[in-house]
Write a structure and sequence with these properties.
Blueprint (H helix, E strand, L loop, with lengths): L1 H4 L5 H19 L5 H20 L6 H16 L5 H10 L5 H10 L3 H6 L5 H40 L12 H57 L7
Helix pairs in contact: 2-3, 2-4, 3-4, 3-5, 4-5, 4-6, 4-9, 6-9, 8-9
């Protein structure tokens, strides 16, 4: 409606609509577990972006701040919809004054992180978690084989030499021991690979936390900037 009938609406209609919308989301955002907020964040961003394109003179400061807050929450939750909110934020024209503020506070590293592919970190993290779990399961299966073969070797030796004199030698004993040693080496390689992927996972999670901190810093700066920009009044 905003895109197709925008010219039919007056600035006053838009301003009232934006006020009602931001008031609604201000109330909803106070409840961090409100699922409807996350579910509708992308739609809210699309509407605000369309209004910004149609009426760039309107004050969208609060709306863009809410969208930055919602984007940060979605990112913190690993919800891929944060990227959709970000795309709509980017589509708000720079002629909107609030977008200029948003560009300023996000210039300190946020854009660089996005260009570097931070949006792919969650997929990489999920892949690594799955591979680490698979390697752990493989290591457990190998350990089970090692224990089974060790028990079989011990049982065979007990049968041949129940008193444990060591005078009776199990002919296939050396081959069984080599098999057990090979399994232990295989397990060691699996564990080594798992530890390497754990290290990579820690780096990715550290990058996710750092970008999250940058988003939170941008959000704080966004809200503080208009306050700091207000002219001071002196008493008489």
């Amino acid at each position: 409606m905003v895109r197709s009938e925008g010219d039919l609406l007056q600035d006053l209609d838009y301003a009232g609509f934006v006020r009602r919308l931001t008031s609604l989301y201000a109330s909803a955002c106070n409840h961090r577990e409100n699922a409807a907020v996350a579910a509708t964040a992308e739609a809210y961003a699309a509407v605000i972006a369309a209004i910004g394109q149609s009426r760039p003179r309107l004050d969208l400061t609060l709306a863009l701040g809410q969208l930055l807050e919602l984007m940060t929450r979605l990112f913190s939750a690993g919800d891929i919809r944060w990227k959709l909110v970000h795309q709509h934020l980017r589509s708000v024209p720079d002629s909107v004054r609030a977008k200029q503020t948003l560009n300023h506070v996000c210039a300190a590293g946020v854009s660089e992180w996005l260009d570097a592919g931070v949006q792919n970190l969650f997929g990489l993290r999920d892949d690594l978690v799955a591979s680490i779990q698979a390697l752990s399961a493989r290591a457990r299966r190998i350990q089970a084989k090692i224990r089974a073969r060790q028990r079989a070797l011990a049982d065979a030796r007990d049968r041949l030499d129940p008193s444990g004199t060591g005078k009776v030698i199990l002919l296939e004993g050396p081959s069984r021991e080599r098999e057990i040693s090979a399994l232990k080496r295989e397990k060691g390689l699996v564990l080594e690979e798992r530890e390497g992927r754990k290290g990579t996972l820690e780096l990715i999670e550290s990058d996710i936390r750092e970008f999250e901190n940058r988003l939170r810093g941008a959000r704080r700066a966004y809200y503080l900037r208009p306050v700091c920009a207000r002219p001071r009044t002196t008493g008489t």
